[in-house]
């Protein structure tokens, strides 16, 4: 495969939290393992964009999710921020200037003047030009980048951006409904402070854009659980895509067949993640929670329940590392909202009722109005116990080829990335503002911790 890797940060601060202690965002010692400080990033405009009539990607799902999160009262248990909007400079940390310049200039009104560029940058049917395209990219990318900055400065244990997770975008082009790869940009920010970052992807589609970006490095391990075979998009993610050069064995792929259910999924998810944690020993995790792996998804073919999908999120949370949680795919709007709301509650360790509270999208959840609808199986589970056991064994054998926890040279804290204080964690500008997303002053708390 084509490996177009990122330029990794040349400085690394070796003082990032490894055991739950904070440099200065909170008073006192570490929080108990069950209760974690959570920051949630939400731009009120991000759900108002439209890919076009008939397109399966519907940003409105983000508004439906946010409404449900608010009406369950979960905002009382976390800090809700209006995030920074990423600049073209931020996007060019990974993407080419030519590509980002194109995204910034093209509109439905002037599209005829960009005929050659459209095919060059893979913009068309799957990735259409729509009103506000660049602003949309700026919003979801800025939120992921801001989450990474807050984690780096130890202002929270968990940062959530459900609008992010667009894992297919490539350095030079759009792909699979994704234009700017916010995940790669956030990981590059995390690498300033963390020697090793683990990326986990539970979207039904292979996380190809993230894997490709870090294919040659041993500082990022990418782990993707996805449908593979029968020409399923994007057609990558075979078990034998392992990484190359310094990154050999740092790409972990778990190719699954259609119809996988909760029990089968967890049969492979838990041992793979446990093995990865043992051998890679990351100090930070990025989790992409694509909801198209749920049963009944418009473009999916798995049989995961809301609870089953959430069990993966809960398992990662309980590993106790700084965690950036992102959205991703998901094309049955009501189920996307159910899953990400439920997973917000799990990340907060705050139980919620199965009864959907009344909200402006209440009719979306008819006829049962429940957070956990009965799973309707559309596909038989083609994943035998033997097949899944073989995958787990193969992954384990590949992990044994790693040198335990690759070493990274330590450097002093870069002067542009200073710890934020407790006051700054609540949204005030801080000393990191000179070179972080907070420099815009747009990181405004919409609701503070109750």
UniProtKB/TrEMBL annotation:
<dbReference type="InterPro" id="IPR003084">
    <property type="entry name" value="HDAC_I/II"/>
</dbReference>
<dbReference type="GO" id="GO:0005694">
    <property type="term" value="C:chromosome"/>
</dbReference>
<dbReference type="InterPro" id="IPR023801">
    <property type="entry name" value="His_deacetylse_dom"/>
</dbReference>
<dbReference type="InterPro" id="IPR023696">
    <property type="entry name" value="Ureohydrolase_dom_sf"/>
</dbReference>
<feature type="binding site">
    <location>
        <position position="203"/>
    </location>
    <ligand>
        <name>a divalent metal cation</name>
    </ligand>
</feature>
<keyword id="KW-0156">Chromatin regulator</keyword>
<feature type="binding site">
    <location>
        <position position="292"/>
    </location>
    <ligand>
        <name>a divalent metal cation</name>
    </ligand>
</feature>
<feature type="binding site">
    <location>
        <position position="126"/>
    </location>
    <ligand>
        <name>substrate</name>
    </ligand>
</feature>
<dbReference type="GO" id="GO:0040029">
    <property type="term" value="P:epigenetic regulation of gene expression"/>
</dbReference>
<keyword id="KW-0378">Hydrolase</keyword>
<dbReference type="GO" id="GO:0046872">
    <property type="term" value="F:metal ion binding"/>
</dbReference>
<comment type="similarity">
    <text>Belongs to the histone deacetylase family. HD Type 1 subfamily.</text>
</comment>
<keyword id="KW-0963">Cytoplasm</keyword>
<dbReference type="GO" id="GO:0141221">
    <property type="term" value="F:histone deacetylase activity, hydrolytic mechanism"/>
</dbReference>
<feature type="compositionally biased region" description="Polar residues">
    <location>
        <begin position="436"/>
        <end position="450"/>
    </location>
</feature>
<dbReference type="GO" id="GO:0005829">
    <property type="term" value="C:cytosol"/>
</dbReference>
<keyword id="KW-0805">Transcription regulation</keyword>
<feature type="region of interest" description="Disordered">
    <location>
        <begin position="414"/>
        <end position="450"/>
    </location>
</feature>
<protein>
    <recommendedName>
        <fullName>Histone deacetylase</fullName>
        <ecNumber>3.5.1.98</ecNumber>
    </recommendedName>
</protein>
<dbReference type="GO" id="GO:0048511">
    <property type="term" value="P:rhythmic process"/>
</dbReference>
<feature type="domain" description="Histone deacetylase">
    <location>
        <begin position="55"/>
        <end position="345"/>
    </location>
</feature>
<keyword id="KW-0804">Transcription</keyword>
<dbReference type="InterPro" id="IPR000286">
    <property type="entry name" value="HDACs"/>
</dbReference>
<keyword id="KW-0678">Repressor</keyword>
<keyword id="KW-0090">Biological rhythms</keyword>
<keyword id="KW-0479">Metal-binding</keyword>
<keyword id="KW-0539">Nucleus</keyword>
<dbReference type="InterPro" id="IPR037138">
    <property type="entry name" value="His_deacetylse_dom_sf"/>
</dbReference>
<keyword id="KW-0158">Chromosome</keyword>
<dbReference type="GO" id="GO:0005634">
    <property type="term" value="C:nucleus"/>
</dbReference>
<feature type="binding site">
    <location>
        <position position="331"/>
    </location>
    <ligand>
        <name>substrate</name>
    </ligand>
</feature>
<feature type="binding site">
    <location>
        <position position="176"/>
    </location>
    <ligand>
        <name>substrate</name>
    </ligand>
</feature>
<dbReference type="Pfam" id="PF00850">
    <property type="entry name" value="Hist_deacetyl"/>
</dbReference>
<feature type="binding site">
    <location>
        <position position="205"/>
    </location>
    <ligand>
        <name>a divalent metal cation</name>
    </ligand>
</feature>
<feature type="active site" description="Proton acceptor">
    <location>
        <position position="168"/>
    </location>
</feature>
